[in-house]
Amino acid sequence: MARPFIAGNWKMFKSVADTIRYVAEFRALVADVHDVDIVIAPPFLALHSAAEAAQGSNIGVAAQTLHWEREGAFTGEVSGPMVREAGATFVIIGHSERRTLFGETDAAVNRKVMAAIAATLTPIVCVGETLDQRERNETFEVLDRQLKTGLDGLTGEQLAQLVVAYEPVWAIGTGRNATPAQAAEAHGHLRTRLRQWFGAPAADACRLLYGGSVKPDNIAELIRQSDVDGALVGGASLDPRNFAEIVYRSRQATV
Ligand code: 13P
Questions:
Q1: Of residues 48, 67, 95, 187, which has the active-site annotation?
Q2: How far does residue 232's CA lie from ligand 1's centre (Å)?
Q3: pLDDT tens-digit series, residues 61-110
Q4: Within 77-223, where are the H helices?
Q5: 154 pLDDT exceeds 90?
Q6: Is residue 95 annotated as a catalytic residue, yes or no?
Q7: Residue ID of nearest Cα to ligand 1 atom 2
Q8: Rounded to whole angstroms, how far apart are CA atoms 158 and 118?
Q9: How far does residue 82's CA lie from ligand 1's centre (Å)?
Q10: Helices 180-198, 139-150: inter-axial angle, 10-degree rounding
Q11: Averaged confidence pLDDT in the chain
């Protein structure tokens, strides 16, 4: 089992002051955890403060999106180099909320992945089906399309560094997580496709996270599934003790 990768997506929650308080408390809680990759993704405005507060710790910082251009007349947008300079080393790309609420397409995801790599940010690329799509038996087809277009043009070497998050839309913020069997099935499918497209060594090095109503109570069972290398946590990452508990349990489940 690979080293677990646990990321907290804060979405549009927490001010700069909240972020500084959170990181001070959280870094103490996870100070002794050296066998888990831990990442938090605050809103843009708090990225720099988060990175400063996390300096010298085992906590990485991620942005929640980025624009694919380095700079230009794109009112309201933030670029990869800006995010990197603020101290982030990861960036979430193609989250289902970006796709459904802000019209992000698979082609846009692809441009953002390339921009992230160019800015030396590690992309965390999100894919996942809606409930309708699952009920119509289209899950694999949807995942294939999102992944194929989203990762188009990547080399095996680049894929090996990448993080992919499987987040079934019906499980996000609903309290209804995918069953361990459903997660294992989807992750197995993703790994198979990545092997076909990029070769086994690169595909096996790419970390596959599960996201959607992950909590301290279900992390162990989910992360024990083959091809589940970690989790992308929304609501349960907003409280530092809760999130630290998820980190602890992910590690106990994999020893
Ligand atoms: P919840 O953990 O709140 O369901 O959110 C999952 C998510 O969207 C993480 O990116």
A1: 95
A2: 7
A3: 999 999 999 999 999 999 999 999 999 999 999 999 999 999 999 999 99
A4: 80-85, 96-102, 106-118, 131-135, 139-150, 156-161, 180-198, 200-205, 219-223
A5: yes
A6: yes
A7: 234
A8: 11
A9: 25
A10: 40
A11: 97
Strands 37-41 and 230-233, how do they pair?
A: unpaired
> 47: part of which helix (H) or strand (E)?
helix 47-54
Which amino acid is located at 154 in the chain? L
User: What gap in Å lies between CA 224 and CA 183, rounded to an integer?
Assistant: 11
Collapsing DSSP states into helix, strand and coil, what is residue 125?
strand
Tell me, in angstroms, the distance from the centre of ligand 1 to residue 213's CA: 6
Which structural domains are found in the chain, ordered by start? 5-253 (3.20.20.70)
Mutate which of 214, 217, 245 for ligand 1? The one with the most ligand atoms within 8 Å of its CB, which is 214
| Region label for 94, one of left (φ > 0), alpha (ψ between -120 and 50) or beta (otherwise) | left
* pLDDT of residue 1 exceeding 60: no
User: Which is catalytic among the residues 97, 104, 129, 167?
Assistant: 167
Structure tokens at 252: 């106990």
Q: What is the pLDDT of residues 166-205, one digit of tens each?
A: 999 999 999 999 999 999 999 999 999 999 999 999 999 9
Give the Å distance between the CA of 72 and the centre of ligand 1.
31
> Does 189 participate in catalysis according to the annotation?
no
- For ligand 1, whether the C-beta of 237 sits within 6 Å is no
Global model pTM greater than 0.70? yes
- 9 C-beta closer than 6 A to ligand 1: yes
Q: Say if CB 208 and CB 1 are below 8 A apart.
A: no
